[in-house]
Amino acid sequence: MRRNPSWLIWGAGAVLSLGVVLVSLVYGQVAAERQAAPESEKGAQGLQRSSYMPTIEPDFQQTVKRLKAEKPRAMERARKLLEERYDLADRPIPGVTMFRGKPVQGGVRAKLPEGVTWDQLAAMKPEEIKEKGLFPRGFLPLPHAKHAEGGMVFPAFHIEEIKKQTGRDLTRFDVDFDLPDHFLPEFPPPMFLTTRPDLGDVSKGQLVTTQNFYELFNGILTPKQLEGLRLLLTAFPQQQFNQTADRRSEEPSLGVACFDCHVNGHTNAAFHLVGDIRPQEFRHRIDTPSLRGVNIQRLFGSQRALKTVEDFTEFEQRGAYFDGDTVIAVKKGINVLERGSQVHDMAEVQELLDFPPAPKLDPFGRLIPELATEQELRGQEVFFGKGRCAECHVPPYYTDNLMHNLKTERFYKVQNINGRIASADGPIKTFVLRGIKESPPYLHDGRLLTLADTVEFFNLVLGLKLNEQEKQDLVAFMLAL
Question: Which domain covers residue 261, as residue numbers?
Fold first, then answer.
């Protein structure tokens, strides 16, 4: 007996129709959000979806004129977003400074939604917070200051010193740095070497550049390491800084050096967009992580999970420098490093970068009771107990060298934030907490301005139910790391 296949055909057709409807709804939501953004924030490709950056080269002077005229509006929009999200006041923690004396900012800076407290918010379920739109804006993904354009953006103090020392100008004519200086690491940061802890800050308070590295490090580093440091300080073409007519510097540029972001082997909080996500509006802002303690790390890139520092070094030059577009990289002058010598030399220097001293910690990364305050000791108990911090941040360096997905999308609806579609963060590596007070802002995109913000964020996202005293104690402990 033969079965009539008509029911199979009808069923397949129904499933296909349902699939088309679901895809249309999802794409329609995203398309509507993109249309809602101002024209200048819809992305370099508008509504066209492509894996590649634009290749049409308009008249350069006309581009400069247009983007200069748009710049005040773009920066005003970025400023307004930050003020809506955060308390941006300069309010440091009394008596707490970074290694060279810059005050450390305190307090929770993310603003609460009107009518709720942190305790009330922490008592709600993620679904309720999402439905009522109560997830604090400062906990949402932070967009690039000009997300449709993206690219590397440097703090003004770094631009000025690099121009003074080397003559290179890292100023962009289309966008400026957005976060206030008091939320950034001290500049220039100290530089410590695992091979010469007796020397303390080997930078001697200077910004290390091609102009002074030989004088500072000759006799301290080996010839191989000196060559690696030279390469880390040498500028090579980058997407926005090069000699082509689609750059974002007014004059032709030699490019950008590794240590323009990872200043003195640390960070100046320069930001850009990840090179491994398309389309443009889904790309994540990336805050420059510190290179201190690279020798104990096994994952590199905040979300890329590169397995060696050599991979990271090569990827940055070949991919990230050009926003992930290898076609444009060739056009603009990609720097192809030789793996067996140049990459290895650069990696060896990075693996010498040490953390700042932490005199209150024993060899196992725990507080020495005789040197710690009562609050710090209470904070340590919270860290290893109720706070569950140590489940990911394992001593002595306070990382598990793994990736974790916090699934923050449980708390908010998909939305367009200044050209950035906030949908999900995905897996993020466990950042090292040794010396953490020296490298604000926090999380992979810098959305958390203070350590108090990080405690409040994880208290909510992980459902820890910490009380106010426990939160303050936890911050005190992290300041001692």
Answer: 156-350
421 and 380 belong to one structural domain: yes
394 Cβ contact list (under 8 Å, min separation 6): 400
Q: Say if residue 279 is in the same domain as residue 374.
A: no
Which single residue is written with the structure tokens 């004129």? Answer: 65
Coil, helix or strand for 189? coil
Side chain identity at residue 262, one-letter code: H
State the Cα–Cα distance between residues 192 and 170, nearest whole angstrom. Answer: 26
Both 208 and 274 in a single domain?
yes
* 245 and 219 in a common domain: yes
The count of domains in the chain is: 2
Alpha carbons within 13 A on the beta-carbon side of 17: 6
Q: How far apart are CA 21 and CA 18, in angstroms?
A: 5
Whether 75 is covered by a domain: the verdict is: no
Task: Clarify whether residues 270 and 178 are in a common domain.
Answer: yes
**How many whole angstroms separate alpha carbon 153 and alpha carbon 187?**
16
In terms of Cβ atoms closer than 10 Å to its own Cβ (0-12, 13-18, 19+), residue 11 is exposed
Flag whether 35 is in a domain. no
The reported pTM is: 0.88
Is residue 186 domain-shared with residue 314, that is, in the same domain? yes
Domain boundary among 298, 325, 350: 350
- In tens digits, what is the pLDDT along the chain, a chain of 481 residues? 444 444 433 444 443 343 433 333 333 433 433 344 444 444 444 445 788 877 666 789 999 999 999 999 999 999 999 999 999 999 999 999 999 999 999 999 999 999 999 999 999 999 999 999 999 999 999 999 999 999 999 999 999 999 999 999 999 999 999 999 999 999 999 999 999 999 999 999 999 999 999 999 999 999 999 999 999 999 999 999 999 998 999 999 999 999 999 999 999 999 999 988 889 999 999 999 999 999 999 888 766 678 899 988 888 888 889 988 888 899 899 989 999 899 999 999 999 999 999 999 999 999 999 999 999 999 999 999 999 999 999 999 999 999 999 999 999 999 999 999 999 999 999 999 999 999 999 999 999 999 999 999 999 999 999 999 999 999 999 999 9
The amino acid at 53: M
Q: Is residue 406 part of a domain?
A: yes
In whole angstroms, what is the distance from residue 180 CA to residue 188 CA? 16
**Residue 392 and residue 338 in one domain:** no
Domain end (from 319, 350, 381): 350
Q: How far apart are CA 76 and CA 240, in angstroms?
A: 22
387, 423: one domain: yes
Q: How far apart are CA 53 and CA 321, in angstroms?
A: 13
Ordered DSSP codes for 311-372:
HHHHHHHHTGGGTT-HHHHHHHT-----IIIIIHHHHHHHTTB-PPP-TTB-TTS-B-TTTS
- CATH number of the domain that residue 403 is part of: 1.10.760.10
